[in-house]
Amino acid sequence: METQENKQNLPETAETQDFSGYDDSAEFAKEQAEREEKSKQDFLLPPDPEAILEVRHLKKYFTLKKTLMGKPVSSLKAVDDVSFKIKPGETLGIVGESGCGKTTMGRTILKLYQPTAGQIFFEGKNIAGYKPKEMRGLRTKMQIVFQDPYSSLPPRSTVGDILSEPVRVHHIVPPSQVKEYVLKVMEQCGLRDYYYERYPHEFSGGQRQRICIARALVVAPTLVVCDEPVSALDVSIQAQIINLLKKLQTERQLTYLFISHDLSVVKYISDKIGVMYLGSMVEFGNKENIFGNPLHPYTNALFSAVPNPNPDEKVHRILLTGDIPSPANPPMGCKFHTRCPKAMEICKHIAPAYREYEPGHFVACHCYAQED
Length: 372
What we know:
The chain is α/β, with parallel strands linked by helices. It has helices spanning about 5-10, 25-45, 100-110, 130-135, 160-170, 180-190, 205-215, 235-250, 265-270, 285-290, 295-305; strands at about 55-65, 70-85, 90-95, 115-120, 125, 140-145, 225, 255-260, 270-275, 280-285, 355-360, 360-365.
C-alpha cells in the first residue's frame, strides 16, 4: 500500500519529464561519482556502538574478463553498494529472488569472499581488510549454517569428529572436557547422544541440518549467518528447525542474518527485513513496516506471490514479466524498471535514491519524492 503522504510527495515531473536525447552514460558516471563521494564521507564516520554488525557500501564484484595486463574489463556486480545494521539479539531477514546476491553478501560479510569495496564493522572493528590470519580469531564469533545439509558435512567423519574438531582447534574447552561439551551442545540442538559415533549418511535431512546448526554453535558464536537453512527440507521439518533457531537465540543471545526466499518464514523469525534485487537493497525496515506498508513495487510483487490459506479471500497477484536481468550487464537507471508495473520514463535513465521515508523504513524508488 502507498501512503497518502507518499502519493502527494510524488515528483510532478516524474511521469511527464522529456528524456529524448538524454545522455545515459554521462548520468551513470555522475551517479557513480556521487556514490563514491558518499562512501568517502561515510568512511570517516565512527561505527554505531549499539550495532554488533554494521555494513557500509559493501560491494562484491567478480571479474569476468581482463586485459593482457590484468586490468578488469567487465565485472559481475553480485553485491552493489549495500548498507545496514544489526543490533545484538536481533534477526535481520534478507529476501529476494534467486540470483539477487543474498548468499554472496552473507559470505562476503564472513570474509569467505574478499569484498571489492566497503566497510564491515563487527563489534566495532572494521574487518573488511583483515587477512585470513587476522580473521582466525573471529571465526569463533562469526559462523554460518549452509543451505544444503547434504553437501556441507564431510561424509567420512562421524558426528563426534565433525563437532569436536573446531572445539579442539579453537581451544573452546580443555581437551579432557571436549566430548562432554559436544554432547551438551548436541542435546541443545535436539540430537541424541548415540548420534556421536554415526556418519552423516545415516541421518535424515532435518537431522543433518541440526548437526550443521550444532557445528556452528559449538564454538559459541555471537553472529550466525543462516543461508536458507530450511529451503531443502520438508515443511514439517522446516517448522522444527525454525523453532530450534528461535529457542537457541533466546538461550544463547544470538544475532542472526537470516537469508531466505520464503516470506512466511522470514516474517516469523525476523525483527528487520531487507529486500534485495540484482545486488542492491531496494527496501529495508522493521518487520511491521515492511509487511504492513510495503513501498517498493518489487516488495509488493513478492508479497502477492505468497499463498493465502483462506480460499474465500481474493488476492491481487502482481505478475512480473520477463526474467531478472544479468548482474554482469544491469539496465541503466533503476535496475527494476524492465519488470516494474509502475515504471516511468525517468526510471529508465536515472537510478532512484535510497532514502528514509518513515522512521527506519528505507526504499529506493521514483514513486516517492527524491529530494527533501
